[in-house]
Amino acid sequence: MSTLRQSPLHDQHVSEGAKLTEFGGWEMPLAYPEGTLAEHRACRTGAVMFDVSHLGTVRVAGSDAFERLQQTLSNDLGRITPGRAQYTHLLNADGGVEDDIIVWWLDDTTFDVMPNASNTTRVVEALRGPDVTAERAVLAIQGPTALTMVAQVIPELAGLGRFQVRPFNWNGVAAWAAGTGYTGESGVELAIPSQQAGRVWVALREAGLPPAGLGARDTLRLEAGLPLHGHELGPGITPLEAGLGWVVGWDKEAFIGREALVRERSAGSRRRLAGFAVDGRQPPREGAEILHRATPVGMVTSGNFSPMLEHGIAMGFVEVEPGGEGTSDGSDGDGDWALGQRGRILSARPAARPFVTPGQFAGHSF
Q1: Is-above-0.90 flag for pTM?
Q2: How far apart are CA 289 and CA 273, in angstroms?
């Protein structure tokens, strides 16, 4: 069995009493003593801090960096400028999502491409850039008060906008920040040199930011209706099926998977990603059958108990009828939808995503 990689902040997690788990080849905090439920609610009502150093960073630099990315990734970098970040996909020839990625455009010829942990090698091979993951730690401060709290420690980051990328220097620590995150709340991600990350962690903790683990990160992204690679995205799932057509730069002449997506857009997708709310506290789980009028029409890809709504929520793919209208004729009533799980039938109803909107629970108490 291979040795798990550890974050530059591993010692901090141990000292905080974190429960550690394997994720994407890394040993990362699942939860801290307060527990996932408390961490989740702290993010929705105020702010928390995640260590997401397991995410990869691939440096793409040089005079041809822009064109390399344009010809490889799905989104169009021409929509943004240096000093901005962009969500994009690495596709295969069939239009399936090999990985979903955030690109930080640092300066005219330098980009930091951030893939999921388990897909870093794949992205390195596709982009022909060095893997610099070990050189930095990444902290994600998320929640309605995240930017205010970060600015108390790092005043340079006051007013950092959504998807803005900015360098900063804090007490001699030269680093980068982006107005990005994966919780559905406002926030900032900090890419800090590995050897200095502990200092920043301690300063933010002393300012009152509680830590949160991967358990809360997953329930938060589910409430926000955000896809997770390996669940709502993957090599056999296209951006159009996942409802992410806006991630495709249709005006670009060429990128991997473009021809397949053009064909799909013309013919229509064979399935679509849908959201469901479940009556009661029973958490729906991945693999549950989605039933429409007792007929199986799809499968749950992510499901759990919503700590904020206090009932079950789920996402999953449902079949699309010819013409792209989905399985419902618009006359659904109570009992038309359900989830079949472990021999039980859970009453369900279609629900718009996101299930929880940014700032919806700011300042609430539980």
Answers
A1: yes
A2: 14
